[in-house]
Amino acid sequence: MPKNQKGAGRAGGLSTFVLMAVIPLVSLPAFAQTKLAIPEANISASASDSNLPVHANDGSLSTRWSADATTGTQWLQYNLGGCYRIAFANLAWYNGDSRKYNLELKTSDNGTTWSTVFSGTNSGTTAALKPYTFGDRPAKYVRLESTGSNVNRWVSLSEMEIWTQGTGTCSGLDRNRTPGENFDLSDYQLQTLNSSLQVKFVDPINTYTDKYFYTDPSTGAMTFYVPSGAGSTANSKYPRSELRADTTWHMGGTHTLAVSMKVLQQPATGQIIIGQIHGEQTGGSELLKLRWTNGDILMGVKKNFGDSEQRILIKSGVALGENIDYVIKLVGPTVTVTVNGTSKSFTYDSASWSDVDLYFKLGAYSQDASSNGTYAKVAVTALD
Questions:
Q1: What residue ranges are annotated as transmembrane (predicted)?
Q2: Is 115 in contact with 108 (CB distance < 8 Å)?
């Protein structure tokens, strides 16, 4: 499950927000859709003189927010009141046609942990609004930080607008941490790939990361990346970047795996296994495989140990990048798989499976053994 994140106070008390279309003052990126209206109560700053923080969001370039940065970095912060996919921020600087301000633009899901989107200066050639691209990054907070300009240590910002692509999904994960720091992976080992695209096992995971298992720098998601045709484990011909639970158990009692994730890319075959109940024994001990097949999600099950797999459709028409919440729950001999609210159940022959040591797996188990240049990519935002 995700490790506890530090809480953060809201920057204000209002929670009603309006998205309104406006005519931009400068030429803006083609993907811009709407400007987010920020209530005054949701605008805060480290300090100010008589030029208040709300003046940076009043629609006028003749007013400004100002703060003395002589003693350190000053910041202006917007609480967006929800999670939005930010296309860009429009900034206009006081005397920006003759001053270059040092600035950093940052985003956060919780108001405590920040990721830098831009670090540098304004152009120093215009006082008009100019866009700083965020690349559709999801966030609940946006912060501008500055230590002043090449003229003095005062920070003076005329306007800051936030333009969005609509609502997004914020995980509360730290984009600067490894997967093992964002999630409790103490009961998992990692099956990944080495530099020669051959199988590599990592246990314990701790702070381990590589190009096939990493934290997405935009969302903080635990990401699994698998090139088609890479090396496979002993009893398979398919490549994987996958977590395997260390704890094993027998059929009986209740065993649950809950995951929130997205399939970001599918291989040429269109097939990925995104979750499993697997067995230690060879010869067909895969109790359940949760399969992605060109946007359809199916459960593959075997009534008896060693049987051929039966496939049951759970959900169809799921798009790449669409959120998938799934729960695999085995109670006695009956497994129930729920995907985005739709459930299917199957009952096994318990006598056939009674001596099999079982465990959970999740990640990206690509079903493409050809070296065709395609890949599977899966992003996990919650694990329990």
A1: 12-32
A2: yes
Identify the burial level of 22 via C-beta atoms within 10 angstroms of its C-beta, where 0-12 means exposed, 13-18 middle and 19 or more buried: exposed
| pTM tops 0.70 | no
Q: What is the pLDDT of residues 177-205, one digit of tens each?
A: 999 999 999 999 999 999 999 999 999 99
Between CA 213 and CA 384, with CA 208 as vertex, the angle to 5 degrees is: 70
Task: Please give the Cα distance from 188 to 160 (Å, whole number).
Answer: 44
- Asked if the structure places residue 23 within a domain, the reply is yes
* Total tally of structural domains belonging to the chain: 2
306 — alpha (psi -120 to 50), left (phi > 0) or beta? left
Answer yes or no: is 1 within a domain.
no
222-227 and 213-215 strand pairing: antiparallel
Residue 185: inside a domain, yes or no? yes
Looking up residue 299, the CATH number of its domain turns out to be 2.60.120.200
Does residue 184 contact residue 380 with C-beta atoms inside 8 Å?
no
Question: Which pLDDT tens digit goes with each residue over 241-271?
Answer: 999 999 999 999 999 999 999 999 999 999 9
- CA 18 to mean position of chain CA atoms: 25
Residue 163 lies in a domain: yes
User: What's the CA gap between 64 and 260, in Å, rounded?
Assistant: 42
- Cα 287 to Cα 332: distance, rounded to the nearest angstrom: 13
The token pair at 54 is 């709300």
Is the Cβ–Cβ distance between 78 and 144 less than 8 Å?
no
Token look-up 């096939």 returns 212
